[in-house]
Structure formats: structure tokens, C-alpha cells
Amino acid sequence: MIGKITGRIDYRALDHVLIDVNGVGYLVYCSDRTLAALPATGQIAALYTDLVVREDLMQLFGFLTLVEKEWHRLLVSVQGVGAKASLAILGALGPDGVGRAIALGDWNAVKAAKGVGPKIAQRVVLDLKDKAPGLMAMGGSVAQATGDAMVEVAGEAIETPARPVAPAPTPTAQADALSALGNLGYGPGDAAGAVAQAARDDPQADTPTLIRAALKLLAPKG
């Protein structure tokens, strides 16, 4: 299994890049969002990868973060969702956006991805709703563990920080808010939905702000 590759981008296409790793070229398919965040041709890129092997095909898919990769693996586990549809969903929403959409039951957001119809979008939300809290919480621990990537190719160390595409609460803030709500006795599904709603309402919210907003959403009505 090829879990991560680091090398120079030889060329870029509409849906993939060719990465040269010590003289070996790897075709890596990525979402539109990931492709937009990669550096220019000739520069160093580091991608987490998922290798799909079939009788007549081998394809490598690339992701900027481990969380994005894990969302891809969950998405393709849904009946009717192939790798192309998964990349379309991740390209349209980003990993954090996918988590929020699923936690909120917002299948219309998933349907906005190119080539994804309403039935598939609803199935994604229904099948993954119970799994969303765990992966949303995973985002914080991964962000804390990795930070900006420092890669080395042929003795040359180059810093390659990920470039955000759209502002959003950090994975750490969302994960910490989920953990705090769990400690207060709220169920994973309810906590994830409230944090997702709070993050959507205030894209720049930090952890305390997310917790306060989520508690208001979870408070009994009436």
C-alpha cells in the first residue's frame, strides 16, 4: 500500500498530477480543491494517498490531509459512490464541509457536487451520519500531530504548508468542542450536529465560541 508520496510535480492535468519521486513518476488523482491548493509545476508536493487495485486497473488518489483521505475512504464505502463521486464531493465541500453537511443531515449540500444526484446524496448522509462525529474529532488530533509538512527530496528540505481554500473553524477547535460536549454528557450525534451548525453560522469561531453556540443549540426549547 502506498500511503504517502513526496516529489516534484512534473505536470498538472484537469483531474490529476504527475509527481516525480526519485525518477519514478506517479499519476495521482485529486479533487479540484486539492489540485488548487498544490504548488506550481516543478515544485515539491506531499500527498497522502489511497491505492485502488482492481483486476484491470490501478489508480492512486491523493489528499492534502489524513482527514481528507479518511473521508474519501468513508465516502466510497457508501453504495453507489465511486472514487470520482467522492472526489467531487470533497472538491465541492472540503473535508470539514462534508462533516458539517452529514452531521446536519444536509443532503442538498452533498448534492451540489458535480455528478451526485439526490438519491446518492441522501444515502451518503444516512449511511455516514453515525460515523461523522468520530472523523470530525479526528481532525483536531491530526492537525495537532502534523502541523505544516517539512519534506526532503534529494537532500533538499522544503517547507510545504497546506494552503486553505476557504475560511473555516480549525479542525482542532471543532474537535475540542466535540470533546467538551461529550464530557458534558451529550451524545456524539447531537454534539456533532450542534458543532457543525455553530461552525456554519460563524466560520471564524474559536473553541469557546463554538462550545457556547453549540450549548445554546442543544438547550431545551420552550
TrEMBL record:
Its biological purpose: The RuvA-RuvB-RuvC complex processes Holliday junction (HJ) DNA during genetic recombination and DNA repair, while the RuvA-RuvB complex plays an important role in the rescue of blocked DNA replication forks via replication fork reversal (RFR). RuvA specifically binds to HJ cruciform DNA, conferring on it an open structure. The RuvB hexamer acts as an ATP-dependent pump, pulling dsDNA into and through the RuvAB complex. HJ branch migration allows RuvC to scan DNA until it finds its consensus sequence, where it cleaves and resolves the cruciform DNA.
GO cellular component: cytoplasm; Holliday junction helicase complex; Holliday junction resolvase complex
KW tRNA-binding (keyword) present: no
Example GO molecular function: four-way junction helicase activity
Main location class: cytoplasm
Family per similarity comment: Belongs to the RuvA family.
Domain Holliday junction DNA helicase RuvA C-terminal: 173-219
Localisation per UniProt entry: Cytoplasm
Protein name per Swiss-Prot or TrEMBL: Holliday junction branch migration complex subunit RuvA
Record InterPro entries: DNA_helicase_Holl-junc_RuvA_I (IPR013849), NA-bd_OB-fold (IPR012340), RuvA (IPR000085), RuvA_2-like (IPR010994), RuvA_C (IPR011114), RuvA_C_sf (IPR036267)
UniProt domain DNA helicase Holliday junction RuvA type: residue ranges: 1-62
Region (Domain III): 169-222
Record note on quaternary structure: Homotetramer. Forms an RuvA(8)-RuvB(12)-Holliday junction (HJ) complex. HJ DNA is sandwiched between 2 RuvA tetramers; dsDNA enters through RuvA and exits via RuvB. An RuvB hexamer assembles on each DNA strand where it exits the tetramer. Each RuvB hexamer is contacted by two RuvA subunits (via domain III) on 2 adjacent RuvB subunits; this complex drives branch migration. In the full resolvosome a probable DNA-RuvA(4)-RuvB(12)-RuvC(2) complex forms which resolves the HJ.
GO biological process, one term: DNA repair
Region (Domain I): 1-64
Taxonomic lineage from the root: Bacteria, Pseudomonadati, Pseudomonadota, Alphaproteobacteria, Rhodobacterales
Domain writeup: Has three domains with a flexible linker between the domains II and III and assumes an 'L' shape. Domain III is highly mobile and contacts RuvB.
NCBIfam families: ruvA (TIGR00084)
Keywords: ATP-binding, Cytoplasm, DNA damage, DNA recombination, DNA repair, DNA-binding, Helicase, Hydrolase, Nucleotide-binding
Taxonomic source organism: Pseudosulfitobacter pseudonitzschiae
